[in-house]
Predict the structure of uracil-DNA glycosylase.
Amino acid sequence: MIYVHPDWHLEGLQDVLDRALADGETHRVLPPKDCILRAFEVPPSSVKVLIVGQDPYPTPGHAVGLAFSSDGAEIPRSLQNIYTEYCADTGHPRPRSADLSPWSEQGVLLLNRVL
């Protein structure tokens, strides 16, 4: 089930998604259907920071609907670069997980430009 917080007011989006997912019958679509709009599960009023990625990770099992986030055991290079800057700027230790769900819950909108 695709959930978008109602405050985003994305009317007409279901038609666009239906067409894209129909195309996914013949072409690979990532992330999985239930994660496509995961970045929009939080209300816009809670967003404090926007990080824009280019495309979802192309490897099945890695794209999870939040830009740069991954369920994979290995941290993707692009996220390693973000972590390097994060540690340098904040002095915090390097995160050990590629799951950025906690960032999303704290107001970081992790959006891929293809949306």
Observations:
- The longest helix spans residues 77-90.
- The chain is about 25% helix and 10% strand.
- The mean pLDDT is 86.
- The two ends are 18 Å apart (CA to CA).
